[in-house]
Queue: 2 jobs
Job 1
Amino acid sequence: MGSPFKMTPGKGGSAKHTGKGISERGLGGPKAHGKPHYDTTEGGRPTVYGATEAIPGKIQQRSGSSSVRDDVMKKGYDIREGSSGVGEHLNAVYNDRNSVAGEFKRRTGDKTQAKPRTSSYSNVDVQSNASMKDPRSGKDLINTGSLGSEKQMNNYGYATQADVSSTDFAAGRGGSARSRQRKKDSKAVDKKVLSAAKKWEKGEAAITLGSNEIVKPKGPDINSQLLGGMKVGNGAKPTQPKNKSDLRIVSRSKVGKVLGNVFGPGKNKSGQIIVRHSGARKTF
Amino acid sequence: MKKLLLFSLMLITLNATSQIEKIEGIWKSNESKYLTAIFYSDGEFTFKNVGDSKLKEVVVNQGKDFVTTTLKNPDNNHKVVIKYTLLNSGKIHAEFTGDYKGVVIHERYNE
C-alpha cells in the first residue's frame, strides 16, 4: 500500500464483501438486498480516491440531452407539428392554418401573451393611395396654413417646418391667440418700463399724478401703533409712547391677574376679562 | 318602321355620347382642398379650380365617357394628367398620372 489511493473495497460496513472487486457488486454486480451496496471505507475509515480513479457507486454523468425532463410534454405541445403551439416570442404571429388553435393556446397557455396583430401600416413602407400632397396643386396638405407657406421655405431657406413656426412666433404670426396676446402685453409693459426709465434719467416724473398706476401713501400702520398705544380701530390716531412701560402690551402681572380671574376664585367668572392699560380697553 | 328604328338607334347613340355631360357642376374631394368647377357648352368642357393657387387645367382629349385634362400649378411646376369618368353613383372618378399618381373620387359640392 504505497499509494494513499485505494481501489480495494473496504472491509467494514454492514454488508459482507465477496472480495471480487467493485465491478461485481457496485457497477452491475449482484445485488444483495435489491439495492447495490458500495463500501467506500477501509478499516472503518473513508477511503480517499483520486480524481481519475473509479469510485464505487459513482454514477458517471451522462452526456447528451436524454434527460427525463425532455420527455415531458410541454403545455401547448402540438402532436401534428411536433413543437409547442405557443409561440416562444411575444410577437409570434399565427398563420391562417393554426390561427384558431393558436388563439386558444394563447389564452390557455401558462404565459400571458399579447395577441399578435397584423397591420398594413408600417413605419418603413407605407402602402397607401393617400398622399400628403394635394393632387391638384402638388402642395403639402399638412404644413400649409398659418404655420408656414412654401414661399417661406423657398425664400428664407428654412430646413424644417419648425424653423418656419419659430420665426412666425417671433414675428407674432404663429402660436396660439393667447400666446400672441401675451407677447403683445409683454411688449407693452416693456415700452412702459423703457419710457419710465428714460424719464427717470432725464429727471422728469416717471409717473404722472392722478393715474391709476400711482400707489398713494396710506396712513400710519394701525397695527404697528397698537404695540405702543393700544389703540384699536381704523379711526384711532397713533400716539407716541411716553415711556418704556407703555411699550409693553400687557405686563406679566396683568397676565397673572387675568389668569387668576379666569381660573381662580374671582369676580369675573363670566370669562370676560377687561384689561386697562394706558387708556386702552382690551376685551378677551 | 325602318326609319323609326334608325331614329331610335341614333337617339341611343346620342344619349350614350352625352353621358359625360353630366359631370358639369362643382365638385369636391377629400384628397384636395380645391373645388373643381366643370362647365359644358357646345360640346366642349371647361375646367376651373378654386383654391389657394391659380391652377390651369386644359382639356386635351374627350370621349363619349371620359374627359382627359392636363393640370399645371405654376407655383411649383406641378403637372398632372387627369382622366375623368362618371360613375354610376353619380360621382366622378378622376385618375391622376404624372407628378401625382392615384385615383380621386369627387362628389358634388352642393349635395
Note: The first strand of chain A starts at residue 41 and ends at 42.
Job 2
Amino acid sequence: MERHAGSDAKGDCRVTARASDRRTVRVTTKSPELLEPGIRSVCCEVLDALGAERVEIDVEDAGSLDYVLRARVEAAVREVTGTGTDRHGGGDGGVSRRRSSRDRPRRSRLYVPGNHPRLLVGLETHGADCVLIDLEDSVPHGEKRAARILVKHLLSAVAFPEEVWVRINPLDAGGADDLDEVLQGHPHGVCLPKSESADAVQELVRALEARERALGRQPGSTWIMPIVETARGVLRCDEVAAADERVVMLAFGAEDYMRDVGARRTQESLLFARSRIVAAARAAGIQASDTVYGEGADEAGLAVEAAHARDLGFDGKGAIHPRQIAAIHRAFSPTKEELAWAEAIVEAARRAEEEGIGAVSVDGRMVDAPVVERARRWIRYAARLSRGEGD
Amino acid sequence: MRNAVGREIPERIGPRAVRPFAGAFAARPEGDKAPRPQKWAPREEEKVVSSLETAIERCELTDGMTISFHHAFREGDRVVNLVLDACARMGIRDLRICPTALFGVHQPIVGHLESGVVSRIEGSMNGPVGAFISRGEVLREPAVLRSHGGRWRAIEGGDLRIDVAFIAAPQADPYGNATGIRGRSPCGPITFSAVDAQYARRSVVITNDLQPYPVYPMEIQQGWTDVVAVVDEIGDPNAISSGTLQLTNSPTRLLIARRTVEAVRASGYFADGFSFQGGAGGISLAATKLLGDEMERAGIVGSFGMGGGTRILVDLLRRGLIRTILDGQAFDLDAIASLREDAAHQIMDPGMYANYDSRGCATYRLDVAFLGATEVDLDFNVNVNTHSDGLLLHGIGGHQDVAAGARMTVITLPALRGRIPPIVDRVTTVTTPGEVVDVVVTERGIAVNPRREDLRERFVAAGLPVRPLEEIQREADRFIQPIRRPVFGDEIIAAIEWRDGTVIDVVRKVEGFE
C-alpha cells in the first residue's frame, strides 16, 4: 500500500509512504549537500512521534519549510499506519498563544486556503487583524485530510501578531475531524460556515469544549465566528449571535447568500442582510464583519464598498488578498474627527463626575450614557490600534 | 592578506598582483589611462564581409588571444555561440573571453572549455558556465568578475586588454556605425561595447541588418570599426525580457515592494528632483510601479530614473513623473521603442554610468536604489555571485556601482526563501560591502545599517517596522533546519573585483560540506 501527501509545487514537498519491515527515509532535493541532513532529521522526529517504525518514506522537497514537511510526512504515514498523531502540533511546537480579548479590533479578516503552502508562508506578516485559514470551500474534497494536518502544524509553528482563526467544514461534513487536528495548534477561534441556528452554534460549543478538556486547556478558550450566508441564516442571525458567550463576531458571506436567494450583487440587494446582521450583532453585544470584496485588484471599488459597510455599522470586512488590508483598515479605523469627538465626550464625562453632576453636556448639548460608553470604546479601540495589538 | 571586509586573499592571483579592497572610496587612481591602438583607413575601403570566418581572418585572431562581447540580447543572444563555433571550426584555441554578461543560452561555452577553444574567462559568470567552472579545473587562470563600471575601468586602465571585440549590432552601415535600438531585431543600446571597440586591437560589428550610410544613433562609431560582418541572425529580441521581468503576484514580494516605497517616502530624499534606480527583479519592478503612484499622489516630479529600461519605467516617463531616463540596457521592447521615440529617454554607456576612474558617475546622482541579493549578512555585506552551496552562478552586473552611488541603497529580500536562509552570519562571497548598503527591507521588518542612524530615526518616526537584522534572521530561521555549509579548499576559481580594481573577495573551490 502506497500513500502520498503534498505536491511538487514551490514551497511544498511530496511525501510517499509505504509499509515496510524497517524504517527508511529517502530524500530528494535541489541542494542535497546543504539540505538533506536537516530534512532527514525532521522526518525522523515525526516518525518517532507517530511511533512509526515499519514504514518507508520518500520525500521530494520543493523548498518546504519545516512545518510543511512535518505535516506532509504525518499525513502520508498516518494513511499507511492508520494511527498516531504528531503532538509537535500539540504544545511543544514552539508557539504558545494567549487568548485574545472579546472586543479587540477585528477590521480585517484575511482568507487563505489551507492547502497551499506557498500561500501560507508569511501569512502572519501582512498585518491582518484576523487571519482566517480556510478548510472549507477553497479546499477540494480530496485534500481536506492533508490540509487539516498542514494547518495544525502551521498553527504550532507560526506566532501570529494578531489573531488566527480556522474556518472549518460543517460539523457533520468533516468539521469534527477538522477540530480534532487544528485545535492542537490552538487557534484564537473557529469560523462556522453556513450558520443558521443557535443549535448549530451550541453543537460547535460542545465539540470545542470536549476537545479543550482533552487537550488540558481552559474550556471556553476558543472564540466562535458564525458566518451568515444563507436566507435562513440571515433571518435567524439574532439567535446565532446570542447563542453562546464564545461568539464574538458575526460575519456575512454574500456569495452564498445571493445564490440562495437568487439575487444579483448590488448594494441594494444586500442591504437587508447586511443591516439585519449588524443589528443582530449589536443586540448581542458583539462585532459584525462584512463580506469579502471579490475584485482583488480594484482598490477604488473596495474603498467604496468598505465605506458603505462602515456606514451601516460593520466593524470590519473580509479580504481575499493581503493587498486589500490597508484599504479595509483605513475604512474601519476611527477618523481624526471621530476621535476628537470621542475625547471631548469622555473629558466632559470625567468633569461631570468630578463635579458630582449627573448630566454630561458637550457644547451645550446633553449626552446620554450610551454615547459616553461608545466614545470610551472608540478611545480604547484607537489606543489598541496605535499600539498595533489586540489585547 | 586580509582586506577591508575581512576576507583572506592571496598576494597574486594567476599572473596578476592583487590590490586588496581597502574601502568603497579608498582608491585614488594615478597616472594615465592605457594607450589605445593606432588605426587608420584608406580613402576607399570595403569593411563588409559576408561570413564570421572571413571577419576572424581579417582580424588575425590566433591562439591565446582575448575576445569580447556585449550582453544586450541577454537570453536571446546568438553571437557569442556563433563566434566561438567559428573559432572552433578554424582551429583557434586557448581564447580568453570577456563578455559583459553570460546567460543560460551560452551553455555551449562549456563544450568549448572542455575542448580547449576557450581557456580563460574575465567578465560575468552566469548559470551553466559558472556551475561548470566551479566544479572543474579547466580554466587556465582564475576568472575575474567585474561590475559594469569596473569592466569599463579595467579596459581603460589597461588591466584588461582585448584583441578582438565582437559586437552584435541590430543595425549597422557599411562603414561601421551601429545601433542597437533599430533594425530587424533590436536589443537595446549596445554601448557596453563602446569601450571594447575603442581599446581592442580589432573591432568587428556583426549585423543582420545592413543599411546605407549613415546609421544612427552611432552607439558604435565608424572610426573604431575594422570589419562589418553580415550574418542571417544575431539574436531574438523577444528573449531579452525572459526570466526576471514579471510583475510579481506573490503577497510576500508585494509586501516587500510596498515597504520599500514606504521607506523611500520616509527617507527624506522623496522630493522634487528625486532620482532612483530599480532592477529587473519582481520586487524592484513592483516597487518602481508603486513608487510612481506615490509620486503622482504627492505631486512630485523626479529628475531621472535608471533601469535597465522597462515598460514600467517608461510609463513613469510618459506620465510626467520623471523628466528623463538614463539607460545602458533595455529589458523589454517597450523600452527600446521609447529610446527611439523619446529624446528624454537617453542612451548612456557604462563609463558614464559608473566608471570609478572618472570625474563623474550617473550612479553618484542617485538618491535611492533598490537592489536584490542572494545573501545578506549581519554586517550588511551582500552576495550576488555565489549560492549558499559555494557555486559561482551570477555576475555582478551593476550591483556594486549602484550600491556605492546611491544616497540610500535598499536591498529587497524575502527573509524566507524555501529552506535556504538568505540572511546569514557571514555571506559566502562579498560582492558589495556593507558600508554602501543602507537598508534591508524584508517581509518581517526593515533593518537599517547602524551607520545610518539618521534613516533609522526617520523610519521610526514614520511608524515603519524597524528591527535589527539579527532579529529578523532569528525569526525566519525558526522555520527551517540549519543548512550544512560548504568547506572551501585553497584553489581559487574566481576573483571578485570591487569597482575600483581592488579585490574584495575570491571564490574558492568547494571541497566538501561540513
Note: The interface with chain B takes residues 10-11, 29, 31, 33-35, 37-39, 41-42, 61-67, 94, 119, 121-122, 125-126, 157, 321-323 of chain A (CB under 8 Å).
